[in-house]
């Protein structure tokens, strides 16, 4: 995915930020030139009227510099914020169409850092990298051109100095920070993972006595972030030092040239020439930081490309469907696949980095299968493998005799419409009840939603809400009890048209009566919702000692 594809940035979008930044620095250069002329001319004690225009110009340029600086910041940051928003929209829309295998191996912290810090880094390069580099280029050319009018020899010295400060120093910094930036990116990911773990699971971690250990890991990740930042400090210092050296050496060189040629010129010529050489380096002082921003954005862009995939697919993404109306027309059946496939698993060895277990399954259409095993035995990994979200270590999963790897390669979306997977930590969005259910079936009517809510025992709850299905769950999952959350997610699954349902701990947080009711519901041969006949596979913890199967 290219930078332009991700952010929507066009060349003409840079015109106003670069123009305003250039005018700001030209105002500073002009202020330096006029001030130098005014100081050296006042030293000669001419009539006051001879200085009036210069005095007024100094005041005007001093004010205009601040005004143009404000316009510069407004234009560049406005562009960066628009590009950041577009980058997030592009990333999320690409992910919505991408194979789920692209994110199945990524933890929440890794996803969070890629979609927040990495997107910010890509947008930040506009303010800290692209615009400063273009402004420095234009300003340097104008500075050298004006200096050449006063002294070609001084212009040559200034050119060499600007090349050192504007090209060599950023190159040194960019090369030096590559390793530290990789460390910093890894530290950001680890820190996000650790903080997410603590914030999400603090109550359960405290009960199990593991909260202090997780807090220690979060503190260690924070120290790693600090260490990574400190590792890049020498490169920053080297860039700043090289810029200062180039500025000082250039000023000294221009002074030598000016002193040599002074007999044929005025004091004003000498003062303007030397101070102009110093002022010209204001534009290049931001370039070492620009090199850091570019290096950081390059790494962030690579990680975002790994996440969102093919730019062509991104450009061809369809517009999201309109949300269903509050008062829907008479119930229309949700489109469903033609038949419930037979699911088989032959010598299926499942796992991530190594085998966790082996199963053989032969599930005709419409059967129920419950897998009971202890924590850490790979129940979730088994479901991910059956859903085609991760490849098996060995063996094969087949639908009606066809390997799901072939189905995933041919039409991954059709595979995911056939097999619906409900993870244990499925998300409840901060939006209306209707929109949360529409995740399972965007075209489902209000009548269908009420039907599945009644089936899972949430009819009284939704009827008691102030706006019914239109009530916003302002706290997301925090707006619901654990049992209500599980029932809402089960209702979402019943609205899907998938003929195969894979449910990971679907009855967790339900009381004994609720668990029994939901087990009886999903044991029925004719389920409520979009499709009556389905194959249902449930994995859960054992409820009694020795209960496995």
Order of helices and strands: HHHHHHHHHHHEEEHEEHHEHHHHEHE
Q: What is the makeup of the main sheet? A: 4 strands, antiparallel
So what's the CATH class of the largest domain?
Mainly Alpha
Number of domains: 2
- What is the percent of helical residues? 55-70%
- Overall shape: it is elongated
The CATH topology label of the largest domain is ABC transporter transmembrane region fold
The gist of it:
The chain crosses the membrane at residues 14-39, 130-149, 155-174, 242-263, 269-295. This protein is α/β, with parallel strands linked by helices and 549 residues long.
How would you describe this protein?
- The chain has 549 residues and is α/β, with parallel strands linked by helices.
- It has 19 helices and eight strands.
- The chain has helices at residues 3-7, 15-43, 52-97, 101-104, 108-150, 152-207, 211-231, 233-261, 267-279, 287-308, 311-315, 379-386, 404-410, 412-418, 433-438, 446-455, 459-463, 482-495, 512-523, and strands at residues 343-350, 357-363, 368-372, 394-399, 402-403, 419-422, 500-504, 535-540.
- The chain has a four-stranded antiparallel β-sheet with strand order 2-1-4-5. It has a four-stranded parallel β-sheet with strand order 3-8-7-6, sandwiched between helices.
- Helix 2 runs antiparallel to helix 9 (267-279) and helix 16 (446-455) crosses helix 18.
- 38% of the residues are buried.
- Residues 18-296 form the ABC transmembrane type-1 domain.
């Amino acid at each position: 995915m290219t930078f332009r594809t991700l952010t929507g940035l066009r060349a003409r979008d840079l015109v106003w930020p670069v123009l305003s930044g250039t005018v700001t620095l030209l105002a500073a250069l002009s202020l330096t030139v006029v001030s130098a002329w005014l100081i050296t001319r006042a030293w000669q004690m001419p009539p006051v009227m001879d200085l009036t225009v210069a005095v007024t110009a100094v005041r005007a340029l001093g004010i205009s510099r601040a005004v143009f600086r404000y316009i510069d910041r407004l234009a560049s940051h406005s562009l960066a914020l628009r590009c950041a928003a577009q980058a997030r929209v592009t990333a999320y829309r690409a992910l919505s169409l991408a194979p789920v295998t692209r994110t199945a191996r990524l933890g929440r912290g890794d996803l969070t850092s890629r979609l927040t810090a990495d997107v910010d880094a890509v947008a930040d390069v506009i303010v800290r990298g692209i615009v400063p580099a273009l402004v420095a280029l234009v300003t340097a050319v104008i500075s050298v051109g004006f200096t050449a009018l006063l002294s070609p020899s001084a212009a040559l010295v200034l050119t060499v100095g600007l090349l050192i400060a504007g090209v060599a120093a950023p190159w040194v910094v960019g090369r030096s920070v590559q390793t530290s930036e990789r460390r910093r990116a890894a530290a950001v990911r680890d820190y996000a993972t650790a903080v997410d773990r603590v914030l999400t699971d603090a109550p359960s971690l405290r009960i199990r006595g593991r909260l202090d250990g997780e807090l220690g890991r979060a503190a260690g990740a924070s120290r790693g972030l600090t260490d990574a930042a400190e590792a890049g400090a020498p490169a920053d210092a080297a860039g700043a030092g090289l810029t200062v050296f180039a500025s000082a050496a250039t000023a000294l060189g221009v002074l030598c040239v000016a002193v040599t040629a002074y007999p044929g010129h005025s004091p004003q010529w000498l003062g303007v020439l030397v101070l102009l050489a110093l002022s010209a380096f204001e534009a290049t002082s931001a370039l070492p930081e620009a090199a850091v921003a570019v290096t950081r954005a390059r790494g962030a862009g690579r990680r975002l490309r790994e996440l969102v995939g093919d730019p062509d697919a991104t450009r061809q993404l369809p517009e999201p469907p309109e949300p269903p109306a509050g008062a829907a027309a008479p119930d229309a059946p949700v489109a469903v696949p033609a038949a419930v496939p037979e699911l088989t698993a032959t010598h299926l060895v499942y796992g991530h980095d190594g085998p966790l277990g082996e199963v053989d399954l032969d599930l005709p259409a419409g059967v129920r299968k419950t897998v009971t095993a202890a924590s850490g035995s790979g129940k979730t990994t088994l479901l991910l493998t059956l859903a085609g979200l991760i490849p098996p270590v060995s063996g094969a999963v087949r639908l009606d005799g066809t390997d799901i790897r072939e189905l995933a390669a041919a039409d991954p979306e059709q595979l995911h419409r056939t097999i619906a997977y409900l993870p244990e930590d499925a998300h409840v969005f901060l939006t209306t009840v209707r929109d949360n259910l529409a995740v399972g079936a965007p075209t489902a009517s209000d009548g269908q939603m009420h039907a599945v809510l009644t089936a899972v025992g949430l009819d009284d709850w939704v009827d008691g809400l102030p706006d019914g299905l239109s009530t916003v769950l302002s706290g997301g999952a925090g707006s619901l009890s654990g049992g209500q959350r599980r029932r809402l997610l089960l209702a979402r699954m019943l609205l899907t048209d998938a003929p195969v349902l894979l449910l990971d701990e679907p009855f967790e947080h339900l009381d004994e009566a609720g668990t029994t009711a939901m087990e009886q519901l999903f044991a029925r041969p004719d389920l409520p919702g979009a499709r009556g006949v389905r194959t249902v596979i449930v994995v859960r913890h054992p409820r009694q000692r020795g209960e496995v199967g």
